[in-house]
Here is the input.
Amino acid sequence: MAGVRILVVEDDATLGGGLRQVLAAQGYPVAWARTGTEALHLAALDPVDLVLLDLGLPDLDGVEVCRRLRERSARVTIVVLTARREEIDVIVGLDAGADDYLTKPFRLAELLARIRAHARRLEPGAPAERLVVGDLQLDRAARRAWRGGQELDLRPKELDLLCLLMREAGRAVPRERIMADVWDAHWSGSTKTLDMHVAALRRKLGDRADGPGRITTLRGVGYRLELP
Here is the structure.
């Protein structure tokens, strides 16, 4: 996991410098950008694996920086760090391409746990595995998925979520299991991010809001990917 390259994008000198110091002490190669412009420049110069992105930047809006980073790479993991607590701000950030978010102030232990969970999925050497459920196909090693032969444009967490649901197709998958497998085994925060990712995944799978779809919500339990 130490080979995972991290870019911290934070204009607050105390927080940004502290995160760089802590992550470097954990063995991660880490760079620090204080503005959105600098972040885009550093990411272009030396591609990174994971970005910790503050939304409240002094020059560019953090959501726009997120969107540009995502346009450049579908594989980079983007974790938004934000003081904006309104749900709409979180949704906008996720729609712009973020994979995860933490609201400030956050506990350092939780941030490090999230990073470890994301980093594990970035490690090379995962066994090749191709899943097929109806017209859905997923290649775990290549991290690609298709519906009806057309490739899906999935963010990293959306692909991880689809992979788990396909592996358990036809069976109920509890919310706690999804959070543990897709996010982190010691997850203790809100599961609202799961609902947002399921909603985004449903749209990309072609599910309609006014009718039955591929993913069924099991109230009080979790979700199930329906067999064809």
User: Anything to note?
Assistant: The chain has a mean pLDDT of 85. Helices lie at 13-25, 36-45, 62-72, 87-95, 108-122, 156-167, 175-183, 192-205. The longest strand covers residues 77-82.
